[in-house]
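Usage example:
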Amino acid sequence: MTLYFLDFVLLIIGLYALVVKRHIVKKILGVAIMEYAVNLFLILLGFRKAGIAPIFTKDMDINTFIHTAVDPLPQALVLTSIVIGLGTLALMVAMAIRLYERYGTFDMEEINRLRG
Amino acid sequence: MKKNKQSGMTFIVKTITNLIIGFMMVFGAYIVLYGHITPGGGFPGGVMIALAYILITLAYGRKVVESMVSGIAGSIADDFGALVILILGFIGLLIGGTFLFNFLPKGTPFSLFSAGNIILYNLAITVKVGMSLYIVFLALAILQRVVTEDETQEVRK
Amino acid sequence: MTALLPLFTAIPVFSAILLLLIGKFDKKNFPRIWSVLTSLSLLVILAVIWGKGTIVHEMGGWKPPFGVVLVSDHLSRLMLLIVNAVAFLVTIYSYIYMKKYEDYLRFFTLFLFMLAGMNGVVLTGDLFNLYVFLEIASIASYALVGYGVDAEELEASFKYLVLGVLASIFILFGIGMIYSVTGSVNMADIARFLTANNIADNKAVLMAVGLFILGFGLKGGLVPFHAWLPDAHSSAPAPISAMLSGVLIKALGIYPLIRIFYNVIDMTPVISTIFIVIGCISMIVGALMGSGQIDIKRLFAFHSVSQMGYVIVGIGLGTPLGIIGAIFHLLNHSVFKSLLFLSSGAIENKTGTRNMKELGGLKEYMPVTSGSAIVGSLSISGIPPFNGFWSKLIIILAAFQAKNMWAAAALVLTAFLTLMCFLKFLRHAIFGEASERVKGAKEASFAMVFSLVIFAVLCLLVGIFNGWVISNIIVPAQSVITNKLGYISSVLGI
Amino acid sequence: METVIILHLLLGFMIIGSIITIEIKNMLSAVIAVGAVGFIVSMAFLFLGAPDIAITQVIVEILSLIILIRATINVDNEAIEKKEEHVLSNRTTLIFVGVILVFAWFAFHSLRPFGEPLMRISNFYLIHGLAEVGATNFVTSVILDFRAYDTFGEAMVLFVSISGAFVILRRWKREQHKDFLRIDKEH
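Running the assembly step on the lines above writes:
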């Protein structure tokens, strides 16, 4: 339980950075931290006590493997969401660069004011 | 690799890059090809190969890398990677009646060609992920130089 | 028949990639023709599978709870109709409109990906798959909002991107919690597990419910999280703001809410009151903030927020009549809101400004565009012969029937505010004396006028034949929503 | 038992690292701090028995670090000193966050206890994976065969974000009638 809770605290820290911080790159870093927190939460859900990685090797017996392997489904979900996070990060950095080029500053408040 | 002196980073970085590039490419290829036997798969392998090219860009500057894999060739390879995934899906739809059906024979568990068209998907995803991340890095690199030129100090790129 | 379902996402993706490949050689005509053909072919496929009951397609040949499954029941087909019909007409409209921007090869690629993402969201029966296709549609729309790469558009699309990613993270966290409690990601399997073990009231599911309302509410532009909507919809190119307001906030925001809170997790009284409260606030705040606007696109964007409030109130009421009214309003709103945004695009294209004060007397110079704008404004404010009137009437009746006086009062007040606001728009922009900017304007080109006229005719036809539309399209969709056990048995086949 | 302790330690480091990321002034060191948090996450994945995800996390982490450093290297790296709290006054955010944390604490108690996942669907994958798919890496068999549609969708997500980044990054000289479109600000 405390692992889930600590992970949720990490998510809240990322959310805090996203909402309160005015620097665009800090907002992007906040999003990155929230992505880590969610991915870690999904893998934490799939962990099995004294569980081994779901990779079947030659010297294993299939029956003991089935009862000790960790849950492969959340890992499939997390692999997808890591790459989605990379995609959104690339888009955000591209926009940050262009915003800096147009407004000359990374400060979101300044940009809102200039935009009128 | 022609070593033009003025662009790219210091000599030390260049020699280290020469040493590492071979290892990164081989390790990336291993992760992709054995993705269904040992940990790894299309995505990490593809990104690793893209990182090898990005390392060359950082160390030697864009001109050297563009001569090896140009932006246009990269985007065409990217489109072909995506097309291969789609075509495999459609073939599965024709043969097995459902989209993305695994129609190739499954083979013996620990051999290389053991899991039907999983290996084909892995290769297609490697080409797609690797090439698209390489191109987007080139785009980011190009723009970065333009920004610095506006500030009239030539950045050694 | 089941083999046709994956085509809804495969064909737009296939033609988008082909577009990128062949577009390198012929940048001018191939992209536009090809995307019109693609959206037409999707409409043809929809016509083929229209009346066939619930069709289930198991991806990769695996039985539902183990593989990903595509479910096409009446509700999904209604949403497919809305998404693909509006997309087809918007593609025809942007055939000419996009000339203003040079590079429209990437525009049509991203447009087709957004279409594929929305079709994927509407069709899938799997919670995580819904998240993946929601991401495809959202990322395509972030880039499309910032397509003009101008100072305002970049700022608006960055704000939209940040809030969109926030919503996706909350949705993924909610999916994780549901997975931990029920052990599965397939919607029908979750529903079966929750009803079998009646643990719908355990705290983890409640938190997941909260996260879903937060995430999908943000994607649907409901009030506490609507900050991005006016900027994004007004600074996007006209066809994109028509797609965003007309279809995207419904397919990514409202449809998942309906599907999850009626077919997966039970609609408890607590959730329905939350829906009604959010709906009422959205209606009133959207209408109030809309009335103060000068820029016609921002005015339409704020009214999108308030019209979505109507739909959410209808859904929150939970009575069959309320749901019928909500879905009917969903259909109507996508027709007349796309019409309004496309006409604002035509006006901006020809007169160069979106400022109501500077327009005036458009009816002499752009008769067809102003005619369609009049039809759109009348139907959004609920004037009898047009479609908006019937759906608003049904929702108000449902509110009275459900003895929810607060909701009924809010509904009537918003209807009145919307009417006032759009009369002001008509008086400023269409009637009155012509300003110097309008004098030089001539009628929009044929493709733009064509889709405007078709939307206007649809507004009128749906308004007149509302009886037929309700009984043949809306009631089957409503019966699917309220019949949760039917959904579970048709998907899992038990 | 000791994996739980190690995981608590790692999570503690992550929280410290992310607080450093937010509060530090120089932008470049903030990016480095996020890189550190990312690598600790990858270590946690190793302890949780997910080697695939650890490799992917490390590699994607390196790439996002390069892209982030690329964005912040040539620009003024000092954070904005102006008054920070503009969105919500400190007290309301703290109360709001406090309420969420308390509710989350009770919600996480009714989740499955850590270490005993409800393996309803995954048992099918583990039992039938070897026979019907033939891949010994079960995560890959889930990704590329049982749920191949997710990976198809996700490959397209990357494709969309790359062409989206190109749309944003393209050098494009709009025709001179750009100001013609601009809304007149002085009205």
